[in-house]
């Protein structure tokens, strides 16, 4: 086909198309559709957690008020350990969890540590983590204005990883406690501390979960450890330990304690001790010199599908009572093995950590109301909580152990350890009338282990007593080097 012929064929096709479209439009009037383009909708997640009834009502998300209230009340805690105590945290699972495993042998020179703390009163009471100051020979507190003070250690509670310090100063800016029970998952929070020795650092995030247990306090070295952490995604790094977790009103709702990390740096998860636990621990230490721990007197297991199937439970709820301590509070109230605790004082509990958190807010002698499911039916019980010795009395200082066993204890000196070839032990400095003497123990005996628990302090003796229903099997040594074993009956005569 030549070019001229091809041109005429193409022109005819185009003209045919135009005529066809004109004819369709002339005879068919299609209905008109008006399409409205709506205003762009932003993702809801961008606005999640803004409390329009709070201090930022009518505006965007603004943390400046909470940050201003917090940075002046958060301090830098510097610690120093001398060479004779520098290896006290070597192999400590908490330190390995937070900072990562450490290789090689412990450093024999002075060791400097760093963390954070929160001022709780104008006269210088400060709360921090126990692991920040554990084993320290000197504790220095540096305020936000760079003023420095040597701090006195008022008391510690390893079971919650809380410690209380005191500096001699007045007129200090401090934070008020908020109620951590009231915070909700998704709520905005601020973490304030001194990561990597950077002072007054503020990060923001949301509450990711509540009543979280990560098995860092409740481990083989601290079986009585209490874990019911607030989990957040606010950035927390080494040095933040002991710092403040605050709500948007600037109230203290937690003490930042740990991160989940294989590297020692923040990877998205951080954990704080709730303020309801912190406040109780601080008040106990200030008033009594030690924490007044209350116990129901049960061994518990969180109910899962497998647990429900194993024990024939109708529903997956509550906390299963696997054993009841003889003569404990639960036993006296009528609670039995196989019961399922579903609420404490009207608050639903579905995990071990939720139940433990509620009990940890009480002292021995307090009465709590439990709702228990037994054979599918709800039953109400009033339980009077007891201390680790089985009584409802308040225990002051270390008198509980001394009164119970009939002896005064002192830690071994470094010279005594070297002479006897031991690394730890508690010596009976004076022996009175009581269970120790009745078992045949003599003055000067050094307790090395009780029920296989290494005894390095009074707290270890308490832990051994608290974890047995019957008695203590003690391993020890006399100053002469003679090894001896004793069985002590702890039941009332």
Topology record:
Layout: H1 3-27, H2 64-71, E1 74-81, H3 93-99, E2 111-119, E3 125-129, H4 130-133, E4 138-142, E5 148-150, E6 152-157, E7 162-166, E8 188-193, E9 201-212, E10 229-232, E11 244-246, E12 252-259, E13 270-274, H5 275-288, E14 298-302, H6 305-310, E15 319-324, H7 329-333, E16 340-344, E17 347-348, H8 352-360, E18 367-374, E19 377-384, H9 399-405, E20 407-411, H10 414-420, E21 426-431, H11 435-438, E22 446-450, E23 453-454, H12 458-466, E24 471-477, E25 483-489
Antiparallel strand pairs: 1-2, 1-4, 2-3, 3-7, 4-5, 6-7, 8-9, 8-11, 9-10, 10-13, 11-12, 12-13, 14-15, 15-16, 16-17, 16-18, 18-19, 20-21, 21-22, 22-23, 22-24, 24-25
Write out key terms for the chains shown.
Pdz3 Domain; alpha+beta; 12 helices; 6-stranded antiparallel barrel; Thrombin, subunit H; 493 residues; 7-stranded antiparallel beta sheet; globular; 3 domains
Strand order of the largest sheet: 5-4-1-2-3-7-6
State the end-to-end CA separation: 124 Å
Radius of gyration: 32 Å
Q: Report the uncertain regions.
A: 23-59, 84-90
Q: SS-based structural class?
A: alpha+beta
* CATH T-level fold name of the largest domain: Thrombin, subunit H
Task: Give the helix tally.
Answer: 12
Mean pLDDT, to the nearest integer, reads: 80
CATH top level of the largest domain is: Mainly Beta
Q: Which percent bin holds the helix content?
A: 10-25%
């Amino acid at each position: 086909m030549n070019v001229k012929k091809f041109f005429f064929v193409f022109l005819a096709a185009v003209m045919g198309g135009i005529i066809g479209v004109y004819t369709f439009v002339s005879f068919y009037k299609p209905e008109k559709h008006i399409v409205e383009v709506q205003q762009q909708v932003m993702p809801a997640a961008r606005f999640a957690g803004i409390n329009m009834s709070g201090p930022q009502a009518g505006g965007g998300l603004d943390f400046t008020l909470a940050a201003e209230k917090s940075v002046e009340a958060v301090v830098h805690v510097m610690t120093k350990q001398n060479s004779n105590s520098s290896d006290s945290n070597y192999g400590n699972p908490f330190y390995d969890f937070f900072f990562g495993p450490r290789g090689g042998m412990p450093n024999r020179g002075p060791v400097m540590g760093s963390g954070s703390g929160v001022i709780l009163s104008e006269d210088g009471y400060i709360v921090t983590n126990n692991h920040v100051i554990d084993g320290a020979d000197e504790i220095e507190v540096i305020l936000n204005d760079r003023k420095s003070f040597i701090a006195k250690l008022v008391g510690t509670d390893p079971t919650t990883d809380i410690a209380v310090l005191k500096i001699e100063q007045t007129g200090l800016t401090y934070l008020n406690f908020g109620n951590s029970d009231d915070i909700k998952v998704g709520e905005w929070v601020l973490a304030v501390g001194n990561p990597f020795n950077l002072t007054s650092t503020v990060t923001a995030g949301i509450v990711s979960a509540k009543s979280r247990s990560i098995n860092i306090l409740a481990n083989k070295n601290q079986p009585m450890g209490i874990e019911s952490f607030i989990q957040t995604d606010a950035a927390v790094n080494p040095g933040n330990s002991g710092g403040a977790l605050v709500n948007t009103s600037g109230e203290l709702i937690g003490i930042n304690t740990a991160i989940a990390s294989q590297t020692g740096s923040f990877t998205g998860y951080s954990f704080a001790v709730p303020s309801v636990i912190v406040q109780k621990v601080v008040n106990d230490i200030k008033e009594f010199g030690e924490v007044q721990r209350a116990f129901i007197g049960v061994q518990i297991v969180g109910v899962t599908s497998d647990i429900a199937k194993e024990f024939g439970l109708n529903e997956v709820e509550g906390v299963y009572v696997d054993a009841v301590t003889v003569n404990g509070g639960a036993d006296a109230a009528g609670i039995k093995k196989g019961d399922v605790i579903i609420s404490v004082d009207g608050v639903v509990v579905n995990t071990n950590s939720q139940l433990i958190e509620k009990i940890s807010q009480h002292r021995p002698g307090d009465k709590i109301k439990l709702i228990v499911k037994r054979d599918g039916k709800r039953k109400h019980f009033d339980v009077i909580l007891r201390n680790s010795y089985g009584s409802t009395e308040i225990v002051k200082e270390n008198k509980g152990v001394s009164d119970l066993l009939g002896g005064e204890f002192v830690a071994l000196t470094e010279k005594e350890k070297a002479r006897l070839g031991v690394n730890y032990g508690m010596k009976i400095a004076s022996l009175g009338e009581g269970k120790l003497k009745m078992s045949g123990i003599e003055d000067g005996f050094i307790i090395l282990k009780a029920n296989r628990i290494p005894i390095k302090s009074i707290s270890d003796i308490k832990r051994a007593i608290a974890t047995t229903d019957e008695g203590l099997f003690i391993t020890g040594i006399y100053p002469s080097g003679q090894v001896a074993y004793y069985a002590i009956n702890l039941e009332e005569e």
